[in-house]
Amino acid sequence: MTGISSLRREISELEDAVSQQTALISNMNRKLQSLQHELRKTATYPVCDLPPEILSEIFLYGLPATLIPTESVEPFDPKRPSAPLLFPQICRAWRRAALATPELWKSLAVCMDETPDRRSLHMLDVFAERARALPLNLALWAMQDSAGRGGSQADEDAFSHCLERNAHRIGSLALLGE
Question: Which residues are paired to 173 by β-bridges?
Answer without folding.
Answer: 138
